[in-house]
Amino acid sequence: MHKRNVWTEITALLLLGLSPLVIAAPPGGPGMHAPPPAAMQQRIPYQGEEYVFSEGRWYRPHGTQLRPIVAPPGLRVRTLPGDAREIWIGSVLYHLAAGTYYLWRAESREYEVVSPPVVASQATRYDVIAYPARGQNEEQQGRDRYECHRWAVTQSGFDPAAASTAPSAEVGGLYQRALGACLSGRGYSIN
Q: Is the domain of 35 the same as that of 102?
């Protein structure tokens, strides 16, 4: 009869059980990721540094690996992932992808990383309720709201998307009236 070494068998079983975990762990230690395929990466130089945008997430190169980061405001990308959401806060359309907020910049046709918006209380909201009276589709409504928001900012000198404090009632009202007038002129019923 053949005598078995129980400890050898236990050790072998433990090593077999752990090996998938070791293989599955990302190389480079905690917080590091193997780079996604180059076709899925947008490499973006910004303020003398290089950033990588892939599948809605931001990274910084670290050797041959990528370290996930919180993107600094100002970074821009041409496309967002398909699961990005549109969120209206007041009269401003934000795009949210993987916890990062973006604003569409029509002049450069890019999405720009912005700080998370400050949500104003009901008493300090500057939005107007506008219903499409001419059958405008969602894309047209978004474009009209954005362009009217930009025009209202130039007319009032106040941008609710960038405000950290509430303006005077006069300035807030001027922005709201300008936004309503612009949307009304583009075929929306204003309440």
A: yes
